[in-house]
Amino acid sequence: MTLSLPPFLACCVLITVGVTLLLERSLVRALAGVVVLSNGVNLLIVTASGAPGRPPFTGTAAPADPLPQAMVLTAIVITLGVTAFVLALVHRSWQLTGSDEVRDDTEDRRVRLRSRRGAD
């Protein structure tokens, strides 16, 4: 199987940036992380499926499989729905608190304190 290196490296960069953005406390950055991560995974699926009109593995005579393209189209629709949902969450958070930062919950603080006491 031959794999084109530049699209594969672009997939790795997009997935890395997307995961990094998802780990941020800002909801807008998390939204950007979801979009970038989904684009990286979609590019990875298309890259791994092979050249258009050719089989993904060289040396076989079978026609190209349309499944990767169908999976990417489905992933695009799902990403659109998730993006709209997270965008609504960001907007509502901005309306209620005036910020898009995710704060710690009081119960999270209690659990953290209990775990620290148990570790000592």
TrEMBL record:
Keyword flag Manganese: no
One Pfam family named in its UniProt record: Oxidored_q2
Lineage: Bacteria, Bacillati, Actinomycetota, Actinomycetes, Streptosporangiales
Annotated organism of origin: Nonomuraea jiangxiensis
Subcellular location: Cell membrane
Annotated GO CC locations: plasma membrane
Membrane-crossing segments per the record: 6-23, 30-50, 70-90
UniProt record similarity statement: Belongs to the CPA3 antiporters (TC 2.A.63) subunit C family.
Membrane topology of this protein: Multi-pass membrane protein
Keywords, ordered alphabetically: Cell membrane, Membrane, Transmembrane, Transmembrane helix
Chief location bin: membrane
Presence of keyword NADP: no
Name under which the protein is recorded: Multicomponent Na+:H+ antiporter subunit C
